Amino acid sequence: MKNVLTAAALLCFIEVNAMADNTASFETDPVGGAPKGWTATLTGKGDPKWTTERDETAPSKSKVLKQSGEATYPLLLKNDTNIKDGFIEVKFKAIAGSEDRAAGLVWRARDANNYYVVRANALEDNVVLYKTVNGVRSPLDIVGRRGGYGVGAPVPANRWHSLRIDFKGSRFTVHYNGNQLFEVEDSTLSDAGKLGLWTKADSVTLFDQITYGETK
What's the rounded Cα separation, in Å, for the pair 177 and 37? Predict the structure, then answer.
């Protein structure tokens, strides 16, 4: 009986740790400088600018990431990630942008032109999931609904919100501010890839408390 209990406890430990959270920290990065361990790039054209900053309102009460440049799609990829199934979650604050005020999460990125992204937009008040293939972005249908464009959700600017994507196989589940919004089925990009952050156009956006994990 003891051996059975021990085996059960070990199995539980393995399952819990199969999706252990990792947290991205920027405490050792200089304010105003580029974050270490990440690659700043873009889809399209422009000049993105990713910097480490302080924000007294940040949920972490520590340093945050800021994107303040202008580009078609500014993109920041985490160098040491190569995940097929897992999750990434972030707190974000959309500060400014006349063309766009967006904050996005990227997964299974092969490069700057091929990846999935889910983004919340403070100008449109919605959350949409896309695939980007060869630099072309396309919205994906929500499970149980054909057509349409994401899901409407209030995204007030200058307030902190949370966005999370769980991805396993061809199934992706979107959570916004702790609530499940929708699911998407797509198998275009099925291999492991990098995780990252994303904005659009002239968005000025802060990111904080980035956590991620891999399911085995």
Answer: 27
